[in-house]
Write a structure and sequence with these properties.
The structure is a single chain. This protein has helices spanning 80-83, 86-101, 110-124, 129-143, 176-179, 191-200, 213-231, 236-245, and strands at 2-15, 19-26, 30-36, 55-61, 68-77, 165-167, 172-174, 185-186. By secondary structure, it is of the alpha+beta class. The chain folds into 2 domains: 2-78, OB fold (Dihydrolipoamide Acetyltransferase, E2P), CATH 2.40.50; 84-152 and 158-245, Recombination protein O, C-terminal domain (de novo design (two linked rop proteins), Up-down Bundle), CATH 1.20.1440. The strands form 2 sheets. A 5-stranded mixed β-barrel has the order 1-2-3-5-4. Strands 7-6-8 form a 3-stranded antiparallel sheet. The chain is elongated and about 65 Å long. 36% of the residues are buried. The structure holds zinc ion. Residues 153, 155-156, 158, 174-175, 177-178 line the site of zinc ion.
Amino acid sequence: MKRSVEGIVLRGTDYGETHRVVTLLTAEFGKIGAMARGANRPQSRLRALVRPPVRARFLLSYTGRGMGILSQGELIDGYRAIREDLWKYAYSGYALELVDRFTEEAVPSSGLFHFVAHWLEQLAAGKDPEVLTVLLELRVCHWAGVRPVLDRCAGCGEALSESPVFDIAGGGPLCRRCARERPGVAIGSGVPSLLRLLQEVPVDRIGDIRVRPETKRQMSDLLAAYLEHHTGVRLRGREYIRKLEQYGRPT
Ligand SMILES: [Zn+2]
């Protein structure tokens, strides 16, 4: 059986010297694996299609119940603007790792596929990688079933418009009274409402939301700690970004 399917490469792993196993995100079949035979050979036409980020139409052949064999492909987007920028490339790697870790295999979702496609397009188009990443991390919290509640106090449940402290274990911001009694991470008072905005806004409407560098850093550290606490998953891509930051951010 042969199947032509459009997919975004989430991950590629060498298999022996010349083959590569790829994980594809597709709208019709969800997340699937495929074996790209000979894709690491210098003259292979598959070579450019098996290293993320890539969006392409793939021809997969199936014999029996095993993984599909990726025999041909046609590039739709190689995200050149991302590949040519070390920072964008690092953020795309982290994003695709997040999507890979927090999605189930073989659950078709056109919404998820288009979300990831739009996310990569926005990154390539020059939208703020940190803001895009916070938006993605908030979606991941939702997929993982640990969506933070941002409009109420995680201590007493009172409605909140602003908050000085975020209780990671408790799953949300604290009011001033609860903040005196429970430990939490200090945040700028507007952070919960900004996170709430990013929780809801469609990725292609992110426009030019401007966020101060220290606010971005707070949101990003907070969500990393939050995701790790509630899911127990450590993400290599984030550690790589932190390492890059030691050499300074681009201006
Ligand atoms: Zn409270």
